[in-house]
Amino acid sequence: MAERWGLVTYVVGDTPKEYVGILSADNTVCALPELSEYNGLMPAIERWPEVSAVLRMLDPQHRDPVPGSQILSPLRYPRKILCAGANYWSHLSEMGTTVEPGVLDPYFFLLPATTVVGPDEPIEVPTDEHARVDWEGELAVVIGQYAKNVSVERAPGCVAGYTICNDVTARGLHRRASYADSPFEWDWLGSKGRDTFLPIGPSVTPFWLVDDPHDLRLRVWVNGALKQDARTSDLIVNVWQLVAAASSLVTLEPGDVITTGTPAGVGAPRGEYLRPGDVVTVEIESLGRLNNPVRAETESPVVLERVHAADVES
User: Are strands 81-84 and 69-71 parallel, antiparallel or unpaired?
Assistant: First the structure.
């Protein structure tokens, strides 16, 4: 396997300019002047065929480190985030669900881009103790070209690379207290679509550096205690099937993210949930580590302040 490295979005100091860099295996951010025209990784992914050709030619070693760099989420911000649900056999088992092999179709829900935060940024959890906020470490697929109705065989050609995510879930807010009919019983937006509930990063590893996305070890720690430890070989619907299925529903665009589901080891079966002061670490073999602290959600009246300022000016 080639030496591990990934593509990051970073800033230096207080300047608003975002840069594309290389994150080496020892977590050093190195300059990537070949992509200096792009304001962060997202615009570079939008021109992935050209960018990947450049990346394949470069030597990631012996590059200049960037002192004082701060890594952001590599993708700020995806147009679409499609999350696969109930997609590990071990997770179905721990949640008390039994499904026969070959009968489970891919299931997706959408998340807003405002859920995305980067490495070391806080996950903000509701102060309501009944929210029961849970961790879900996942492999995420980053799309590199427009795709509609692609076959499973052609799906690998649509992938730019892979990254790590944590599909945070407020399980206590998932089931609504009142609803008109059974289809409206479940609140996916309220439980999963909250700001900061999808840490992504630290980098996007180009697809050619990952020998097999279906044979990667995934682990999650909370405050240093190992909670999830599985391999992506336990996926029910594999990566190529997910990409093909998603493309049959919507047009996939460069920079779109498809999360692939979480394995066993979430907190719900044990009654363990995230609290302010916790630290969650998600590690995937060949992709690196994603660390995020947990803090209490703040209620900042940003919209009200902006409206008030506009009223004053008028």
Answer: unpaired
Q: What confidence score (pLDDT) does residue 2 get?
A: 58
| pLDDT, tens only, 82-105 | 999 999 999 988 877 777 666 578
How far is residue 264's CA from residue 23's CA, in Å, rounded to a whole number?
29
Dist CA 142 CA 162 (whole Å): 6
Instruction: Report the pLDDT averaged over residues 271-275.
Output: 97
The backbone torsions φ and ψ at residue 204, rounded to the nearest 5 degrees and listed phi first, read -110, 120
Q: How many whole angstroms separate alpha carbon 97 and alpha carbon 107?
A: 15
- DSSP letters spanning 277-309: T-EEEEEETTTEEEEEEEEE-----HHHHHHHH
Q: Which two tokens stand for residue 100?
A: 């026969």
Predicted pLDDT of residue 303: 56
Over residues 144-168, mean pLDDT: 98
Give 32-56 as a DSSP string.
-GGGTTSSSHHHHHTTHHHHHHHHH
For the entire predicted model, the pTM comes to 0.93
Q: CA 180, CA 184: separation in Å to the nearest integer?
A: 7
CB atoms within 10 A of CB 242: 24
